[in-house]
Amino acid sequence: MKIIIINGPNLNLLGMRENDIYGDETFTDFLEKLQQKFPKVNLSCYQSNIEGELIDKLHEAGKYFDGIILNAAAYTHTSVGIADAVRAIKTPVVEVHISNTFSREDFRHKSFTAPYSKGIIVGFGLQSYELALQSFL
């Protein structure tokens, strides 16, 4: 099974920013542990701070992967373009968020991508990614 994790803006700063919300582990370290835990899954990862690059990666991933784990970060709440990309592809997408977006600012309560996703997982820290991965297995 081929799964890709697509991360949006500022997630390259995990382990360095707002540790009270996002924890102190880098995504690289977490991904290494996840790959060790699921050695039979062909797991890829992509991160960009640029909306158009995320859309391009969703289009590409829709052709070559069995599942997509998407943390569009702040774009979740603002990007009709990313929502349209999720809607346009056939590959199932699970939306994830490290923090509980519903316990934060009001603008974070609306997800443009959720209606087109297989499901959403919020608020379990980096464990949200593992839960999403398990949903494909």
Automatic annotation (TrEMBL):
Identification of the protein by name: 3-dehydroquinate dehydratase
Site positions (Transition state stabilizer): 17
Keywords recorded for this protein, A-Z: Amino-acid biosynthesis, Aromatic amino acid biosynthesis, Lyase
HAMAP family in the cross-refs: AroQ (MF_00169)
Active site: 22 (proton acceptor), 97 (proton donor)
InterPro entries: DHquinase_II, DHquinase_II_CS, DHquinase_II_sf
SUPFAM superfamilies: Type II 3-dehydroquinate dehydratase
GO terms of molecular function: 3-dehydroquinate dehydratase activity
PANTHER family listed in its UniProt record: CATABOLIC 3-DEHYDROQUINASE
Function as written in the Swiss-Prot or TrEMBL entry: Catalyzes a trans-dehydration via an enolate intermediate.
Assembly information from the UniProt record: Homododecamer.
Residues annotated to bind substrate: 71, 77, 84, 98-99, 108
UniProt-listed Enzyme Commission number(s): 4.2.1.10
Biological or metabolic pathway of the protein: Metabolic intermediate biosynthesis; chorismate biosynthesis; chorismate from D-erythrose 4-phosphate and phosphoenolpyruvate: step 3/7
Entry keyword Lyase: yes
PROSITE patterns xrefs: DEHYDROQUINASE_II
Family: Belongs to the type-II 3-dehydroquinase family.
Record's catalysed reaction(s): 3-dehydroquinate = 3-dehydroshikimate + H2O
A Pfam family it matches: DHquinase_II
UniProt keyword Lyase present: yes
GO biological process: amino acid biosynthetic process; aromatic amino acid family biosynthetic process; chorismate biosynthetic process; quinate catabolic process
